[in-house]
Automatic annotation (TrEMBL):
The gene is cspLA. PROSITE patterns: CSD_1, CSD_2. It comes from the Bacteria. Residues 1-65 form the CSD domain. Keywords: Cytoplasm. It is found in: Cytoplasm. Gene3D superfamilies: Nucleic acid-binding proteins. This is Cold shock-like protein CspLA.
């Protein structure tokens, strides 16, 4: 499953962008966030997601906070 960091959050409008592991930016909607609310997410946070197809191109789906192992 791809991982990326949240690049920009617009939580009051219910969406954000993830900087993907390939350097691409992917839009995500708050309805795709799993296990948390969009208000709990922070810019720079590591997330896992699936790449889907939105109205305007590729987007992130099934977005969830990545478990970091040390």
């Amino acid at each position: 499953m791809p991982q990326g960091k949240i690049k920009r959050l617009v939580s009051d409008r219910g969406f954000g962008f993830i900087e993907g592991d390939r350097g691409d930016d992917l839009f995500f909607h708050h309805s795709e966030v799993q296990g948390a609310t969009i208000e709990e997410l922070r810019e720079g946070q590591l997330v896992e997601y699936e790449v889907g197809r939105g109205q305007k191109g590729p987007c992130a789906q099934s977005v969830r906070v990545a478990v970091q192992t040390s």
